[in-house]
Amino acid sequence: MTSYIHFRCPCCHGSQYCTSAFDVSDKNPFGAKCIFCKSSMITLDHLAAARSAQNHVTEYRK
């Protein structure tokens, strides 16, 4: 199984980025910066978690 990290720019909503060891910080642990506006990229982990929670159907009655 291969795990992919999807980044999205919070400013211009672009998905193209470059990484640098000089850009690593607490808020940007991967050092990913948008190539268009140079903003720190964010991951879409919270959206993936919400989507997987919707896919799990819990049945409470028989």
UniProtKB/TrEMBL annotation:
Domain of life: Bacteria
Protein name: Cold-shock protein
Species this protein is from: Enterobacter cloacae
